[in-house]
């Protein structure tokens, strides 16, 4: 299976994946979505994206945490989950001493600072 789906699986509203920058559709090029999900209308130019997307329908969780029994749909989610075991918080706020295990939590936190500036 193509490893691109493991490198950058960010969920979209459709439940699909966002392509890494080097794979995104170029403006002016026709879209070639030749691979389709067996369960819904989701289509992609890349078979590995459809295979990864289909896990949403099948419930398959092939990526396991080596420290506990938890299993995940995407390899990226194991990496994020491992931080709860290690306590690693690589995303630091530049405006206060807080740090976070996930970038999305830092981004949400930064809204507090933005709202306090006004």
UniProtKB/TrEMBL annotation:
This is Zinc finger protein, putative. Its main location: nucleus. May be involved in transcriptional regulation. It comes from the Eukaryota. Residues 35-62, 63-90, 91-118 form the C2H2-type domain. One of its GO terms (molecular function) is zinc ion binding. It is found in: Nucleus. Pfam families: zf-C2H2. One of its GO terms (cellular component) is nucleus. GO terms for biological process: regulation of transcription by RNA polymerase II. Keywords: DNA-binding, Metal-binding, Nucleus, Repeat, Transcription, Transcription regulation, Zinc, Zinc-finger.
């Amino acid at each position: 299976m193509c490893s691109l789906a493991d490198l950058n699986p960010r969920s979209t509203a459709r439940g699909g994946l966002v392509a890494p920058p080097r794979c995104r559709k170029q403006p002016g090029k026709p879209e070639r979505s030749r691979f389709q999900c067996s369960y819904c209308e989701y289509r992609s130019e890349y078979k590995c994206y459809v295979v990864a997307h289909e896990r949403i329908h099948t419930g398959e969780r092939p990526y396991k945490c080596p420290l506990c029994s938890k299993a995940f749909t995407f390899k990226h989610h194991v990496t994020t989950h491992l931080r709860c075991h290690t306590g690693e918080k690589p995303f630091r706020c530049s405006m206060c001493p807080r740090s976070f295990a996930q970038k999305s939590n830092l981004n949400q936190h930064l809204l507090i600072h933005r709202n306090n500036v006004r």
